[in-house]
Amino acid sequence: MGYALCSLGVLVLWALLTIFRKIAPDASFEILFDCAAGYGLGGSTVAMFGRVGGGIYTKAADVGADLVGKVVAGLDEDDPNNPATIADNVGDNVGDIAGMGADLFGSFAESTCAALVIAAASVEGSHDTLSDAGWDALLFPLVISAAGVIICILCSFVATHISPVRKEEDIEWVLKVQMVLTAVIMLPVIYILATVLLPAEFRLEGVRLENGVPAKIVGSPFKAFVCATMGCIGGLIIGLVTEYFTSHTYTPTRELATACKSGTAVNIIFGMALGYKSCIIPVFVLSSAIFVSFQLCDLYGIALAALGMLATLACGLTIDGFGPISDNAGGIAEMAEFNPEVRRRTDALDAAGNTTAAIGKGFAIGSAALVSLALYGAFVIRLKVKTGVNVL
Fold it and tell me: Which residues of the chain have pLDDT under 70?
């Protein structure tokens, strides 16, 4: 799912921009990318219904199946005598697959469109902008996303051919290696793309003030690379922190399981405290990415940071889909009354899948924070606000 979604997202946006250029060859780049901004809005509209509506349906079906099956009728999990298990399985597809995909596609499309709009903004009295550098320089954000899809495809062979899963304990390790490797390989690729596509120096429309006047923002390939790197590494750190707090391999989840022995109240309190604690590092990571990117390339830097975080989206979304697929496989095995060994194996996959699903949610929340600032920046820049906006 992750590869199909990202590939189609890049392909459709590129086709849309190419068609606009054919229809209106004399239109400025500013107008062209303003028209393309609706692409991100469409993705967000679908994401709102898919993520919110689908998520509510998912949890309602899950809790409903447990209540009527376990509490009322005294049946086992996914018992074939409980018709609500069908709704539970469908809910996993609606909320965790379609909903999460729509959510991350919305962030993916919006961050790309925001970066394009900011890049195309003209700077008064300057002829060294990205628009003057040409079409290739303007499409640098789109090329990052396209390169990310290719890198994720190549890294997928690590999990299937080079270092496949040979025993249950290897599941989480193989998925983590793939996630880390994808982010690490993306860094030199982004640097090469920035060096090839971007001019040595370029002016950007900024929103911050220096001595009461709008600051003169001068970008460079290295600055653009650093901004995208902050997002890429930040996404990786958020994913690893999420794994630490949700995986049964590490201490937090094991301590929470031990707390369950003391009663329901202790379980709830300990779980809430653990959830609050898990937010500390991601907040500092996002703040650092925003600060560094804004200092280097103003709002264009924040948009590049969002794209850097979503550059490995194909891999992240594929790993995220691992959870609900494993969950449904276990449900089908139980309803079809397969050998108990089959259910035991799907439960092991499902345990790892819960962690991978949490990693996907971490990516979604982290990227949404950066994308919201990028969209805000595109709006302010197109309004040509000269009174200054302090993002920090």
Answer: 122-127, 386-388, 392
- Nearest-angstrom CA–CA distance, 32 and 122: 13
Q: What is the model's pLDDT at position 388?
A: 66
Looking only at Cα atoms, what is the longest distance across the chain?
A: 75
Q: How far apart are CA 369 and CA 296, in angstroms?
A: 19
Residue 214 sits at φ, ψ, to 5 deg, of: -55, 135
Distance of CA 66 to CAs 62, 107, 279, 286, 316, Å?
Answer: 6, 33, 29, 37, 29
pTM across the whole model:
0.88
| Cβ–Cβ under 8 Å, residues 53 and 141 | no
| pLDDT score recorded for residue 67 | 86
**Pairwise CA distance, residues 234 & 291, whole Å:** 13
**Residue 57: HSE in the Cβ half-sphere, 13 Å Cα cutoff:** 19
Length of the chain in residues, anyone?
Answer: 392
The DSSP result for 286-305, as a single string, is HHHHHHHHHHHHHHHHHHHH
pLDDT number for residue 305: 92
pLDDT of residue 44: 82
Please tell me the distance from the alpha carbon of residue 357 to that of residue 321, in angstroms, as a whole number: 7
What does the alpha-carbon distance between residue 304 and residue 306 come to, in Å, rounded to a whole number?
Answer: 5
The pLDDT value given to residue 98: 83
How many angstroms separate the CA atoms of 211 and 360, rounded? 43
> In degrees rounded to 5, what are phi and psi of residue 210?
-130, 115
Buried b (16+ CB within 10 A) or exposed e, 39-75: bbeebbebbeebbeebbebbeebbeebbeebeeeeeb
- Three-class DSSP category at 285: helix
